[in-house]
Design brief:
Maf protein; two-stranded antiparallel ribbon; 9 strands; 31% helix
Length: 197
Amino acid sequence: MTAVELPFRLASASPRRLDLLRQIGVTPAEVKPAEIDETPSRSEKPRALALRLAVEKARAVADERLATLAADTVVSAAARVLPKAEDEATARQCLEILSGRRHRVVTAVALVLPDGRLLQRVNETVVTFKRLEAQEIAHYLQSGEWHGKAGGYAIQGLAAAFVRHLNGSYSNVVGLPLYETANLLRGAGILTRAGAK
């Protein structure tokens, strides 16, 4: 499917989110990553955190020319928010926590319209990992796929072999729930049922 350019801005540096949009035949007119502080507030719940960060990202780069789409993905285990892994030690800690247990992946999507109106959606997926052997963790760490990923893994890569069960949206775990995103764009009149306006 050839992606059609639509009049909105994507406030994300994630190539995964751009690829996911292209998967449903959509590409933004602009890509302008937002730089915000993503530190969770004390006792902030995963859903509230994802939603707050998505809205802050969208508003950070919004203007009166184009609608601005942003998303944020949060991985949590037993209500504990796991960090984005920026170093190997953090990635290892995340994988050890996720090994053999269920965790939740929440992605919030926010769309700020040129007139300032805000539309938002949240999707939650439950993922269950197999029990990971030490050598599996070591091999995954060597791949480098974990870098910058919430929870220290990328489901679309080697970590797919760790997933014993998934209940919900696969694209949500990759970083952008496509059903909710398409509905947001459609609700704003940016995407019609037949495709581009």
